[in-house]
Amino acid sequence: MLPEEAATEELATEPGGSLSDAPAAPVELPALLEAPPEAPAFARLYGEPLLRMPTDLFIPPDALEIFLDAFEGPLDLLLYLIRKQNFNILDIPMAQVTLQYLKYVDQIRLHNLELAAEYLLMAAMLIEIKSRMLLPQRVADDDLLDTYDPRADLVRRLLDYEQIKLAAYEINAIPQLDRDFTRPSLFVEQSNIPTWPDVDPLDLQRAWLDVLKRAKLTQHHRISRQELSVREHMTSILRQLQTARFVEFADLFQGQGGVPIVVVHFVAMLELAKETLIEITQAEPFAPIYVRLAYSPA
């Protein structure tokens, strides 16, 4: 007898037993291993899939409120509604825009009446425009229909506001001091900077013209050819400066004779200054000009 038949017979012989209590026919093993298909997860929380909405989920009462203070005014809200739905601003569907505008205002009027007051004024204007558009157009004296559009003033205000708002964005994009960049400052110790007297090169020119004027007073009208050497006058100036620390400009030309000699003597002095063998100094404007040997460190 097979084990299955023996178990059936044994169950039938037990008190209160019946064939109806016998186990069902054996089921194939692969059918038991197949799991039922799971529903797709609609969200994930900390990486774990959520297959159904939690029963203890708490949503604060003010979590979904819309605050009108996010807009800069009624025109900003109205322009947002028009641009969001790609309405033609020159042909505004007043019924749809007014309905959506009132929905926004109703959500804030319950909590902040002071903030909603300005928006309610615009809502009244929208309702007035909508009502005027529903009225039949009146006939003018010349039997022509009055083609005035009640939305014209509102469209003009919206276009002006949008233009000003775009200009404000462009101005705000310009780099501003102390917001986008800073201006560096550098402290300079003034005591370490040498201060030189504020002298004018014209003082040297005026001194030279004064010497030239005095030289003309002692000139002779005798015409003669005279060979003058700049090198000789340079040597003469150096010898004169070796005996004195400072020599006044006019004293260098004493005893030089006429204008040709004075000119050559002045050219010799400029050559020495060019070669940095002498220095021409002046303490302050209109002060005497002095000539001395150039300082050479030991």
Automatic annotation (TrEMBL):
InterPro entries: ScpA. Coiled coil: none annotated. Residues 1-22 are annotated as: Disordered. Residues 1-12 have a biased composition (Acidic residues). Its main location: cytoplasm. Gene3D superfamilies: 6.10.250.2410. It holds the Pfam family SMC_ScpA. Keywords: Cell cycle, Cell division, Chromosome partition, Cytoplasm. It is found in: Cytoplasm. Component of a cohesin-like complex composed of ScpA, ScpB and the Smc homodimer, in which ScpA and ScpB bind to the head domain of Smc. The presence of the three proteins is required for the association of the complex with DNA. Participates in chromosomal partition during cell division. May act via the formation of a condensin-like complex containing Smc and ScpB that pull DNA away from mid-cell into both cell halves. Belongs to the ScpA family. This is Segregation and condensation protein A. It comes from Massilia rubra. The lineage of its organism: Bacteria, Pseudomonadati, Pseudomonadota, Betaproteobacteria, Burkholderiales. The gene is scpA.
